[in-house]
Structure formats: C-alpha cells, structure tokens
Fold:
Amino acid sequence: MSDPEDPRDPNRDPDSADPVPAEPDKPSLWQVPVVRAVANGAFFAVMLCVIQVFGIFREAQSLDDETIAANIVAGVVFGFVMYIVELWRWHRRGKRRVADRNTAAAEAARRTVEDRLNQDQAADPDDRR
Structure:
C-alpha cells in the first residue's frame, strides 16, 4: 500500500511526457472513511469487552447486557470520531493534490513555451527579438 504523504505520485502515467499525474484510481474498500470508521468502532467495542472479561486493568468482570450495550455505544462514538478524522484527512489531502497538480501543470506549460522559443531561435538564428 502506498503512502498518501509520499510526494512522488505512483499514479503518474510513465509513458506520458506530461509531468501532470494521471487521475488516481477509485480508492480501495479499506480507504473509504465509512468502512474504516465502522471497522475501528467494532474493533474498539470488542477490545473493551475483552479487556473487561480478562481483567487487564482491574479485576475481571463478567459481561452482562448493560456493559455490552455501554461498550457498543463507546464503539459507535469512537467510530464516529474516526469518521470525522478520516474526512478531514481526505479533505486536506485533496487540497494538496490539487495544488500539486496545478503546480505541475504550470511547470509543464512553462517548459512547453521555453521549448517553442528555443526551437524558434534555433530555426532563425539571424532573427533578433
């Protein structure tokens, strides 16, 4: 899995002379914020139940309906917080990708103009501008 913070874009078309990266593919299922939030919340609720049954931080207690419900509510709250954090991260990364894409497009346009000027000067060496 690639690092989203990596400045080198793996989605860039290697055969293209254009330095602007290709559009990224659709994100995998694990990269969708809702899926991550549900998985994190469920894991957190199960972890709380296991900690209570095995008595990791205090003496072991049996699970009853009330404690299971409290652990599930804690998992839902944790999952919701993780969902908000993931949405924020996606929004932040999206802004950075747009800025990087705009910078790369401006650089490509500048290079294209410089190449044309160099070709014109090479074709007409007597022409002084």
In short: The chain has a mean pLDDT of 79.
